[in-house]
Amino acid sequence: MDAVRAAVLRALESADPQERPGLERAISVIDDECALTDSDLRKRWVLRVLADRGLDPGEYSVGAVAAVRETAPALSLVTAAQMVQEATNTPGAAS
Questions:
Q1: Whole-angstrom Cα distance, residue 28 to residue 87?
Q2: 64 and 55 in contact (C-beta within 8 Å)?
């Protein structure tokens, strides 16, 4: 991302006034994405998996865990359950 940010900054330096707002917005988006934690990225991924399967992203369920494991078969049952629990903000659901 650093290389992408640097490239957009270089483009911003020589941008005409019409291009500047879009490039400034691009810098903002890049900065926001770089600020995400691993936990944020896992949660985003799990919620995307659940949405793609038509599952309620606010609800912990066996179906949600199964969907995550089907999408990433290398995940253990415990890991998938913990990820769904974290993403759905359901304390103790995977216990």
A1: 25
A2: yes
Angle subtended by helix axes 38-52 and 62-71, to nearest 10: 100
Contact 51, 57 (CB under 8 A): yes
Full pLDDT tens readout for the chain, 95 residues: 789 999 999 999 999 999 999 999 999 999 998 988 999 999 999 999 999 999 988 888 899 999 999 999 999 999 999 999 999 886 655 54
Q: Where are the domains of the chain?
A: 2-34, 38-88
Residue 93 neighbours by CB under 8 Å, 6+ apart: 60, 81, 84, 85
